[in-house]
Amino acid sequence: MKAFEKIFDKIDVTKHDYKKLIFIPLGLVLIAIIILGTMGVNLGVDLRGGTLATVNGISYSPDIENYLITNLGDSTIKVRSIYSPIDEGFIVETGPDVDSSKLIGLINARYPDAAVSVQNVGPSLGASFLKQGTQAILLAFLFMAIVVFLAFRIPIPSVAVVFSAFSDMLIALAFMSIAGIELSRYTIAAILMLIGYSVDTDILLTTRVLKEKGDTVNQKVRNAMKTGLMMTFTTLAALSSLYLFSTSEVIDDIAIVLIFGLIADLMMTWIFNAGVLKWYALRRAGGELDE
């Protein structure tokens, strides 16, 4: 606990000028928007359409990707390994124009003893999955915003909470774009989980600052920050263990998206939202200092 107190003393945002600090997360959001505007979002096969071939009972070899690209003429083909304590193999992702029977033939020619299962996702079905995922995220934001506004009934703090959650999502998507992580049904679930966790910490902070009596604004922020950082650090520790020891690439993608989303949430909650709340609380109190 003493180690945590030492770390907290070094990162205590109330010791610095909140009006200047607030530009750090805003700059990060701007960078995320630029990345998404220039690089876009990488869609997985389940959202853009294509073929997924799962090959079991064979050790993954990096040259299988070049072998399939050369013989099928599809430069978008991706091969990733899968591993479990009882089995190993790899997954092949191709575009919608690749003949799945030819793909199976090439795999069987190279690995005659392999067990191959194929899932075809048409472009229209992929577009339907993408539409449903987008609707789920939009509805999550809508209902979250309604709950926040009903809880606080104050426009500025409520907008700050919603903006923080939205920014966490943008930063996570920008990281996925840079890291080459595809947006799929699984990573959409990670984005939804990130929205929920972001709102938790923001509501914790907003409730402490606006509704608790007695302490100064800075002290309220410090108390909320100690609780919120402990929550985030323990979650990051669990997600890091999941990422390091998981043998599933799907779980790895979910874990790493949540890890970077939560790191972004540290800045959006404890720098941006804390700065907005401090400005609002001081303004409501007539500009009285509370150091």
From TrEMBL:
Protein's cellular compartments: Cell membrane
Chief subcellular location: membrane
Transmembrane residue ranges: 21-41, 133-152, 159-181, 187-207, 228-248, 254-276
Coiled-coil intervals, chain numbering: none
Gene3D superfamilies: Multidrug efflux transporter AcrB transmembrane domain
Record membrane topology: Multi-pass membrane protein
Top-rank taxon, per record: Archaea
Keywords associated with the record: Cell membrane, Membrane, Protein transport, Translocation, Transmembrane, Transmembrane helix, Transport
One of the GO biological process terms: protein targeting
Pfam family membership, one: SecD_SecF_C
Protein export membrane protein SecD/SecF C-terminal domain sequence ranges: 115-281
GO terms for cellular component: plasma membrane
Keyword Aminoacyl-tRNA synthetase: no
Family note: Belongs to the SecD/SecF family. SecF subfamily.
Function: Involved in protein export.
Subunit details: Part of the protein translocation apparatus. Forms a complex with SecD.
Protein name: Protein-export membrane protein SecF
Lineage of source species: Archaea, Methanobacteriati, Methanobacteriota, Stenosarchaea group, Candidatus Methanofastidiosia
